[in-house]
Amino acid sequence: MSQSEMVTLDGNEAVAYVAHMTNEVIAIYPITPSSNMGEWADEWSAQGVKNLWGTVPSVVEMQSEAGAAGALHGALQGGSLATTFTASQGLLLMIPNMYKMAGELSPVVIHVAARALAAQGLSIFGDHSDVMSTRSTGFAMLSSASVQEAMDFALIAQAATLESRVPFIHFFDGFRTSHEVVKVERIPVETIRAMIDEDLVRACRNRALNPNHPILRGTAQNPDVYFQGRETVNGFYDALPGIVQRIMDKFAGLTGRQYSLFEYVGAPDAERVIAIMGSGIGAAEETVNDLVAKGEKVGLIKVRLYRPFDPAHLLAALPVTARRLAVLDRCKEPGADGEPLYKDVVTGLAQALSDGRLATMPRVIGGRYGLSSKEFTPGMVKGVFDELSKDTPKNNFSIGIFDDLTHLSLDWDPSYRPDAPGVTACVFFGLGSDGTVSANKNSIKIIAEETPNFGQGYFQYDSKKAGAITISHLRFGPQQIHSTYLVGDDEASFVACHQPTFLDRHAMLNHARRGATFLLNSATPADQVWNDLPRSMQQTIIDKQLAFYVIDGYGIAEATGMGRRTNTIMQTCFFAISGILPRDEAIEHIKYAVKKTYGKKGQRLLDRNYEAIDATLAGLHQVKVPGQVTSTFDRPATVPGDAPEFVRNVTACLMDGHGDRLPVSLMPADGTWPTGTTRFEKRNLALKLPVWDKDLCTQCGKCPLVCPHAAIRAKVYPESLTAAGPDSFQHVQIKGKDFPVGHHVSYQIAPDDCTGCGLCVEVCPIRDRKDPTHKALNMVDAHERHGIELPNWDFFLTLPEYDRRELDPSKIKHAMMLEPLFEFSGACVGCGETPYIKLATQLFGDRMMVANATGCSSIYGGNLPTTPYTKNPDGRGPAWSNSLFEDNAEFGLGMRLAVDKQVEQARELLHVLAEPLGGELVEALLNADQSSEAGIFEQRERVAALKTRLAGIDRLEARVLEGICEQLVKRSVWIIGGDGWAYDIGYGGLDHVLASGRNVNILVLDTEVYSNTGGQNSKSTPMGAVAKFAAGGKASFKKDMAMMAMAYQNVYVASVAFGAKDMQTVRAFLEAESYDGPSIIIAYAPCIAHGVDLSNNLRQQDLAVNSGHWGLFRYDPRRAAAGENPLLIDSKAPSVPYRDFTSSETRFSMLTRSHPEVAEGFLQQAQKHVQTRFQLYEQLAHLAAQTADVPVGAKPKE
Amino acid sequence: MDLSTNYLGLALKNPLVPSASPLSKSVATARALEDNGAAAIIMWSLFEEAVTADAESMVRFLHQQETGFGEAEGGFLPAFEDFDNILDLYLDNVRRLKESLSIPVIASLNGVTPSGWIRTAKDLEQAGADALELNVYYIAGDLDQSGAQVEERYLSVLRELRGQVKLPINMKLSPAFSSLGYTVKQMAAAGANGVALFNRFYQPDIDIDALRLHPILKPSTSADALLAMRWIAILYGRIDGLSLGATGGVHTPADSIKLLLAGADVVHLCSSLLARGPKHLATILTGITDWMGEQGFESVTDFRGRVSALTVPNPAAFERANYMNTLDSYSAAAGVMV
Question: Same CATH fold, A261-399 and A5-254?
Fold first, then answer.
């Protein structure tokens, strides 16, 4: 047996290690939660890490999972060992090719971090819906249940596919296994070598396409032989279970870890047995062990090889004493009489019974658990065993939810927990960006690698990108930890709150066990901090006799030059007071870890980290807990009492983190949710807030335009209305002659919703001549301002919106008086995307339909609990939907087709009903000019009149027209998504939609990277930028999609960057929307993935434009129709070196550190490229006018 | 024909020394410079701000890029554990240039404060740099700071550096001193082995659409060399042992020749090489030798400093030249009766 190394890693890294070692071609595409496997493979290859055969695997990112599967298939035909990683919809996109690969008996392993499928809603979390959808493809399916197994089974699957020629899906649970960090034994390279038979590898190569001995594979077959052809493979599948078991046995010989196809644990004479596969095994095994120790006759079948399903091995594993069997599926098959694993087990047992191999049939029930990473705890496992004890146990049950509709759910005892001697559980509440998670990962490494203890870390995130809360669940103990569920109530010995603002939001101390330690990061001194706690928290501390410590983490960070980075400080506190390791030893380990991380980065960094650690030890104080509750406050209500009922009953519960408690009956059945809900989610994130200086302000409107969160608004109204406002409410006579006398304007901030990004202050062009540091907007300490602005904001909301008909949206000042119908999203602080969406909703939101590609914009747009899309006082607003990632353009086109068809039918019916309706109204409706707000307003009035008249007409046509007549008011169809969608996975559809000639508006939020999945390279990524999947720097130029769209000649195309030229952006939106044909706006959107703080968002846009990285232009076919050149260039020739742009963003500059010469080469090429591209556009813009025959609309104003 | 010259105590084969620019980032380009006649090479500048900003951005974006968002759990950029910081890269660049080139390699530091980053000079010495150029790129925008205080800033950085290394030190200076000659003399006394005249600054420009500043750096032109020429001519031969380098605006053989005639030990080239590539060096070198042939000079020392303040009949012409011409434009020649 080889000597193994103990390592601390997660499931994705464990699998990628084996996959990278045993393959030559790796085709990848990002999809959560599998992306990290591709990222590891790409990074290792970029670093020159070699595989088993001494060569660096070729890692290629494709445009979609369908593309990855195609490339995989081709690589196999080319004779390479190849693999890919995927999940969820990605796996579905691979299905067509999976049939091919299996049909051709091509040895391959696809590693899947199993994830839910998008149905009534998308979910990134783990279950088996995706893999179960592939069970008829002919792929074998091997399921691993832990990080160690994920590494081991990756290798077993690889060896088995080579021997059997049957391709494999190796799957493990998304997040629970893919992202759980634990200590495992790394399989030594020599073991991997011993498991891979070189003769079988050669056999693969010999079967490859080769012109030296040509063959034909992939024929089209007729009814005469196709059927027989399908039957040829039976023997391969018959042999497979035996092969896999043999390989498992061989693996056991090499590593000592024995696995079986179906593995039984529990009482040898068990009467009640559960069969389950995946990470749920961990909780189930703990429970079985506990119950057996208490004398219960229970057992567990761990299902490893799911396809081919071998009932003989199942029967062999099942104790003959078993009378009751519950089969648990982590998926849902609506309409079926049971889920797949259940039905396979029932069929296997029934067959055995019918042919006499089984004497008596146990009673088998099936149920669902853990969909979308729903917690699956020992209490639930016990609940299932309890159900099995009943006379008539429920079949087709669910466990883990409360189903009050169909009453299929089982009850369970949440307080049940198996004994876990020696295990210490800890819970940490942190802010997404405060480093809590990385510090905890580091702590696990220290404990697991520097002591004999085992460690487990699992990290919970919310769906916000700004101000996200992270909850780290850590366990340590002398044995390997299999608790595949969160640290529960009354379980943690240590609870840490890394942000004082969480105190009145979360019931953190529910996790604490009696006598546990509570650590709080707070600037309030130890002798005063007690009264910062809400009453309920004080009570818990007293009741549970918690030891309470406080540290001023931010104070120490500031004092020691760490800025706002508190992770090392909080980690030091953890080790200092948790007692997990001797204090001095632990501090030594932290310092060593710091040295490993920062040693090469400079003494200064190292010194200040050491200084912070020492200062922490001096600044950590235990709080003397009084014997009684003294606070005068408690946790405030999550939403105001006057919030809509749904928000109070459902949304508030989700916001509190108690969504698990919601019963089925409160869920919308078809995935339909109300809009306008972010306004109830007051997050109060800003440390500084902008204050408006009304006397200095010139009312240009730039601040509301750039605000990513719609947290600064402009409104104009009669001055008389301000009499009812608070004294602190600021307003001033509006400048200019566009508004009536006596009208005032306010630029008001929403103090609870501002994130403090400072972009409004950055963009403000007006400085006080006497004090140039003072602008018309200035950031001040939020503590000073928040209380003042709250009533101001509330009053501002009561002021009426200005009549849209009276505003000229082509002026920024006017456009920003329009109410945004996209507000307070969870997008990143300083997000570069959201200002564009917000602008679209200001201009067209009350008649807008949105098809949104999956990505950042669908997450901050539509991830529960709340949505930023909202309604105006008339109840109108954007109607939004997300279909998939790959089909968004087609999805939006479908919306357009529906609208167009209904408009067509409505117009037909108007003609039919002209007489009873009155010719004048019908004519007006049919010939309405809706090119302005006034025109739209009038058409709405006409439609209202139409409805009234229709009510009085007793004809079927009138009823039909009533149902569709609202379509006579112009609809604005928007297709929104990021560059991953538009340039890569959705490009084929997008191209088709551009070619359709239909009136859709496509908004590409171009961050030049797959932002939502963590920053993977797209075809929009510029040359020389480092991204995940392009760890060695992007080697090709950014795709010029605008040029491709212009090639159609009848597409409106604009390239915009609001931070560089806001007026051009507004014009582009107005022109695109007014164009009666396809329009595409490609919008530059700086992203935190660029490695630049987004307080510099506007500067970066400016640099991008001035360096030539991003051109500003508008191509309008209406100009061509008018005999002019359709292309207008709105930016000047590159005026700053491209180097100045790239050196300001880490995505570029990091390559100069890892590959300096390569980076310099890319830079030189990119510099030339931006110049030649600008020249090309300039030349196109100066060509003689086109006379192409294109649809003629109104010529835009210039 | 002997083109050799002595610069900072280094014997150079000719007076053409490419100044700090990105061209030295690539060993291949540096070699092309050498092949085309570069007598030494001044490396790209290691900025004080870059050393500190680099460390900060590495921490922020590579080590602590957590988002708190499950799909982008580990942050956005691939996190190589073993990134070199910018100083490591620079040192590596020095070593590789030293291995690949036979000409002297002069490292360039750019900073304005006598702080810890100066310690890097020792690393540069150990990495094999033949000399150091210190570029104090400083705009004296503080209205409460006297000229003497500004000069002291330069001198304190220089002294700090001198304390660190034995290598020759060249000071790259701006022309914005009230008494440049005196300042240079003080620098020589504080340990400078040479000066390069003059630094060119980014100029602020204003974007009238966005109402914001928009710094630009336009490539130099031959006209820019004339300012350096004046000061080299004034300083030539007057401060013992101090090398004079002319920088900014050297585009043609004639530009080089003028500066050598004024007394430069070397001429530095940047904009012209960025625009025309390393081969332009050979063109300039050929131009100089052709001119020397036409003029009958055998070596650079034959003509270096021939038109300096020490050697021209009317040295004041270097100081008030244009005014003198203007003032004198009404006087008739002495031999003419009015």
Answer: yes
Domain, as residue range, for B230:
5-328
DSSP string, A793-858: HHHHHHSPPPPGGG--TTSHHHHTTSPPSB-S-SPPTT-SSHHHHHHHHHHHGGGEEEEE-SSHHH
Q: Which chain A residues have a beta carbon less than 8 Å from that of B77? A: 1015, 1026-1028, 1089, 1091, 1146-1147, 1150
User: What was the pLDDT predicted at B324?
Assistant: 42
State the Cα–Cα distance between residues A25 and A42, nearest whole angstrom. 11
CATH number of the domain at A1007-1181, please? 3.40.50.970
Answer whether B63 touches A (CB < 8 Å): yes
The pLDDT tens digits of the residues spanning A100-119 come to: 999 999 999 999 999 999 99
Is A115 part of the annotated catalytic residue set? yes
How does DSSP classify residue A647?
Answer: I
Measured between beta carbons, the chain B residues lying within 8 angstroms of A436 are 66
Hey, are the CB atoms on B68 and A464 less than 8 Å from each other? yes
Can A792 be counted among the known catalytic residues?
A: no
Considering the entire predicted model, what is its pTM? 0.90
- Across-strand partners of A732? A745
The residues facing A409 across adjacent strands are A398
CB contact under 8 A, B210 and A1028: no
In this prediction, residues A802-817 reach a mean pLDDT of 97
Structure tokens at A722: 């301000």
Could you tell me if residue B303 is inside a domain?
yes
- Report pLDDT for A1197: 42
Beta bridge partners, A494, equal: A426, A517
The answer to whether residue A833 is catalytic is: no
Residue B11: phi, psi to the nearest 5?
Answer: -85, 115
Interchain pair B77, A1147: CB under 8 A: yes
- Mark whether A234 is an active-site residue: no
Question: In total, how many domains does chain B have?
Answer: 1
Please report which helix (H) or strand (E) contains residue A549, including its range: strand A547-551
**From the candidates A65, A339, A789, A890, which is the catalytic residue?**
A65
CATH, domain range A5-254? 3.40.50.970
The domain ranges of chain A are: 5-254, 261-399, 424-623, 1007-1181
Token pair 């991008």: residue: A1104
Span A992-1021, pLDDT tens digits:
999 999 999 999 999 999 999 999 999 999
What is the nearest CA distance from B208 to chain A, expressed in angstroms?
A: 11
Give CA–CA dist B330/A47, Å, rounded.
75
Q: Check CB contact under 8 Å for A1106 and B214.
A: yes
Query: Nearest CB to A1012: which of B62, B71, B89?
Result: B71
User: DSSP 3-state assignment of A344?
Assistant: helix
Say if the Cβ atoms of A469 and B68 lie within 8 Å: yes
ipTM over 0.85: no
Question: pLDDT for B214-252, tens place per residue?
Answer: 666 677 888 888 888 989 999 999 999 999 999 988 999
Q: Read off the tokens for A901.
A: 């068809």
The separation between CA B124 and the C-alpha centre of its own chain, rounded to angstroms, equals: 18
DSSP one-letter string for A269-282: T-SEEEEE-STHHH
Residues of A in contact with B28 (CB under 8 A): 1157
B82 shares contact with chain A (CB less than 8 Å): yes
**Mind giving me the DSSP string for A363-402?**
EEEEEEE-GGG----HHHHHHHHHHHHSSSPPSSEEESS-
Give dist(CA A894, CA A1079) in Å, integer: 16
Q: Which two tokens stand for residue B211?
A: 């109402």
Shortest distance, CA B327 to any CA of chain A (angstroms) = 41
Give the active site residue among A12, A36, A115, A942.
A115
Decide if pLDDT at B204 tops 80.
no
In CATH terms, is domain A261-399 a member of 3.40.50.920? yes
**Model pLDDT, residue B59:** 77
